Design the sequence.
């Protein structure tokens, strides 16, 4: 006959264990042996985060992940926007709460990248008493460029913007009036939403 016994608990965490085997063939022969074995960690099977969104020019650090998740390269910059349901894939690690029995896992997460806001800011301008309040105008500057973009790289040719003064008409008294800024030759920008 032969008998064996496991040294340690029956419910085993991942780790190294030893199995003690004792054999009793008959009254003249006995023997025992210590056998080493391992319980390997199980691979974590987390719920994959969904509906992750960022803005052109942000880094992955700006996109918050659920508990246990970390971006592999948190300083990666979002360098293009996505359209028509497309997404960009970035690597992330999941670290389970029970690292004794489960191993961390690496997954690709999908991110929708939205356009950044680009504001056109007009400097002060004047019209002479009696002149029409509507005229073409190129703004003095833009605010909101990211990723090293410039007006030239984004627009190629600067758009033509128009200033209108809805509360002013030719012949009104001299003074200060609010104006509205709009674009007269609109075109869709790949990574920016132009606002005024």
Sequence:
């Amino acid at each position: 006959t032969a008998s064996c016994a496991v040294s340690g608990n029956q419910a085993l965490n991942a780790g190294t264990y030893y199995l003690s085997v004792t054999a009793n063939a008959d009254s003249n022969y006995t023997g025992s042996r210590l056998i080493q074995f391992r319980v390997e960690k199980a691979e974590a099977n987390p719920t994959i985060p969904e509906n992750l969104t960022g803005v052109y020019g942000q880094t992955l650090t700006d996109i918050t992940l659920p508990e246990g998740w970390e971006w592999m390269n948190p300083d990666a910059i979002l360098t293009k926007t996505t359209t028509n349901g497309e997404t960009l894939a970035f690597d992330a690690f999941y670290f389970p709460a029970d690292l004794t029995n489960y191993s961390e896992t690496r997954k690709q997460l999908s991110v929708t990248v939205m356009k950044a806001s680009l504001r056109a800011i007009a400097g002060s301008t004047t019209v002479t008493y009696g002149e029409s309040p509507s005229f073409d105008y190129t703004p003095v500057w833009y605010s909101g460029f990211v990723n090293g973009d410039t007006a030239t790289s984004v627009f190629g040719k600067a758009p033509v913007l128009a200033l209108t003064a809805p509360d002013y008409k030719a012949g009104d008294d001299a003074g200060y009036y609010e104006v509205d800024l709009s674009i007269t030759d609109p075109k869709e920008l790949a990574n920016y939403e132009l606002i005024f």
In short: Residues 67 and 101 are 18 Å apart (CA to CA).
